[in-house]
Amino acid sequence: MKILRYILFPIVPIYYLVTWLRNKLYDLGIKKSVSYNFPVICVGNLSVGGTGKTPMIEYLINFLKEDFKVATLSRGYKRKTKGFQWANEKSTAESIGDEPFQFYNKYERDILVAVDVDRQNGIKRIRGIENPPQVILLDDAFQHRKVKAGFNIVLTTYANPYFKDMVLPTGNLREPRSGIKRADIIIVTKCPEVLSESNKATILNSMAPKPYQHVFFSSIAYANTLISVHSTLKIEDLKTFTLVTGIANAKPLVDFLEAKQLDFEHLNFKDHHEFSQQDFDGLNKKELIVTTEKDFMRLKQFESLQHKLFYLPITVKINDKSKINKLIKKFVKHS
């Protein structure tokens, strides 16, 4: 795969020019964006996958849901339905996508969850209901320029920050680095739990944020208890197991489990992998399966796996939680 990316390097200038020109047309107002007079918060990135958007959306849900009526709007990547869809008791990962299905399963009593590739139409449908939500969270819509979110939170990983990357197909960037100027908040995700001030300063110097931008650093916090459909299991009680991942970057989870000196094999599938009957037959032979919450949403459909299928919850730890919360609440209250 890496060799192919280098072979495709001549395409990089073409991709760069096309995406740069598209953004410039929106910046100049030649291509039109729709703004809103109510709070719309976008969580996105410059690169393809693996920056931690889902945990960040959940962070916002947990922070906002006590004071505001919240809705999430996603495209519903790889779902087998079309158009606008509300999440409901009949929804599955196949009908609305794995991340929205995860949001619905965790927060169905607290928020509304919807999917639509056309974010303008999605927002219109969400706001068109009786007693509409006060805040809409857009999941992975930073490049969806037809909608102009009032507040943009852009994520970039500590291991592969956007300022050291290049555009597709050789790099991972969906658009040129200059797109970062549209961000209100930049979060460096998946940092080491202890990050020195000098290391932060080096990153900030490379990033050179604009005066209106705020930069934060976050790390992943893993729970001590794994969860299944029917029971829970302490990490210290884990013995031999199979780790199953279908996410963009499983390395932080693998590193965490290895640091615990646990004995496991790792079946690493591509991001948003659609588990087939053949996959199920192989997994059904395993004694104990540990997976991510996103993969759990897809795998739990196989009833015979449910008694041995567990996921490890994660949360986001942000270095200056009070400051970012104040910035978010200020935007919501004054929109």
Automatic annotation (TrEMBL):
E.C. code: 2.7.1.130
Enzyme kind, highest EC tier: transferase
Record Pfam families: LpxK
Pathway: Glycolipid biosynthesis; lipid IV(A) biosynthesis; lipid IV(A) from (3R)-3-hydroxytetradecanoyl-[acyl-carrier-protein] and UDP-N-acetyl-alpha-D-glucosamine: step 6/6
Lineage: Bacteria, Pseudomonadati, Bacteroidota, Flavobacteriia, Flavobacteriales
Leader sequence residues: none
Keywords: ATP-binding, Kinase, Lipid A biosynthesis, Lipid biosynthesis, Lipid metabolism, Nucleotide-binding, Transferase
Binding residues for ATP: S47, V48, G49, G50, T51, G52, K53, T54
Name of the protein in question: Tetraacyldisaccharide 4'-kinase
Summary of the function given for this chain in its UniProt record: Transfers the gamma-phosphate of ATP to the 4'-position of a tetraacyldisaccharide 1-phosphate intermediate (termed DS-1-P) to form tetraacyldisaccharide 1,4'-bis-phosphate (lipid IVA).
Reactions catalysed, as given in the entry: a lipid A disaccharide + ATP = a lipid IVA + ADP + H(+)
Family affiliation: Belongs to the LpxK family.
